[in-house]
Amino acid sequence: MNFLLEKVTAREILDSRGNPTVEVDAFTSDGQMARASVPSGASTGSREATERRDGDTGRFGGKGVLGAVKAVETEICDTVRGIDVREQRRLDNLMRELDGTENKSRLGANAILGVSLAVARLAAQATRQPLYRYLGGLNASLLPVPCMNIINGGVHARGQGADFQEFMIAPHGASTLTEAVRQGSEVYQALRQILLSRHLSAAVGDEGGFAPAVSSNREPLEFIVQAIEKAGYRPGEDISICMDPASSEFYSDGKYHLRTESSALSSEEMTDYYGELMNQFPIILLEDGLAEDDWAGWKYLHNKLSGRAELVGDDLFVTNVKYIRRGIEENLASAALIKLNQIGTLSETFDAVSLCHENGWGAFISHRSGETMDTFIADMTVALRAGHLKTGAPCRGERIEKYNQLMRIEQELGCEARYAGIKAFVRRS
Ligand SMILES: C=C(OP(=O)(O)O)C(=O)O
Ligand SMILES: [Mg+2]
Fold this sequence. Notes:
By secondary structure, this protein is an alpha/beta fold. The protein folds into 2 domains: 125 residues, Enolase-like, domain 1 (2-Layer Sandwich); 289 residues, Enolase-like C-terminal domain (TIM Barrel). Helices cover 37% and strands 18% of the residues. It has 13 helices and 16 strands. It has an 8-stranded mixed barrel, surrounded by 4 helices. A 3-stranded antiparallel sheet has the order 1-2-3. It has a 3-stranded antiparallel sheet with strand order 8-9-10. The longest helix is centred in the middle third of the chain and has 21 residues. The structure holds phosphoenolpyruvate and magnesium ion. The site of phosphoenolpyruvate has 11 residues, from loops.
């Protein structure tokens, strides 16, 4: 077996929105090869690591990533050639030093992450282990609650649906991940029938959830509760709801502007609105309830709602230990969303999750709205015992491929496998 990294190559491929993204191949000197590709967000936090895009419109219409591809094939390849593929942290540090910026803007976080993930997968292959085992060792046995985004709004529905971006179902009462995925897909099919019976569109948004034109942000919650019941499950007992309003997208001049409801709310009013929704609907997780710059508002939100739902920061923390640490010190949330490309290397992503877990916080693993068929996050979620992940609706190839990979892992683990269930959600009184 040979563990020496011979070279990395890259190319521009298309993501699920039809935009260019980076794909990397990594090779050992005895010819083994592993591949990884990089996702891309739409409702991105302003402090995320920089995704490098070419200045002009690329050959596929959207802005290309040929600059990032070139960085992989020249500077990065020259720097990392010859390292042991199992030295993940060394690899990631070398690339960070080579880049030399705080936000990876010189080489591009998309270039760096592609290499980081491809080499991790190559190391798993070279050590003849499945990726989840290579990343998590003996502990890699906890299957997450799949939080499935079945109604898409906000920018993922091009502003045509709800203001809130994501309405997810969490089948935490299932006894296995596979059963949870089945339940989720049953609710999804029931929801389609409910929407069609009301003459609403059943066309889907970026993450595979339906994107009906609704007249409030309460309406999707009503439809979802009906769908859970129609599919034969008990709302709150078997299946609960998670929401990501992605509120930075509708925050301006100190107010939260809800187009569908013709209202503009202060941080306190927005928080009280969430409280009312939690009274009426079985909501167990609220992500980005307030905006990335509204740190004072987050304090109020956490004081009011932390016992009722897991409060997750996405744009607020951008998978960066610097911001998560501040959130822990100031007691602003109970979990961080974890997105690989927000920070740009695998080892920094692991650091973010460790910091959360060491402080009793949740780590909620996430895809991006622009995805590829790469299933890295499925293995990573099991390896990190993160207990819950969101990777879209049980629909659209790039979303279901992650759920399918989790089912494969569960089957492979056999009697070792454990399903995370309701305990995955951190609620503190
Ligand atoms: C997945 C999300 O969307 P995007 O990838 O567009 O940031 C999110 O906001 O959590
Ligand atoms: Mg989010």
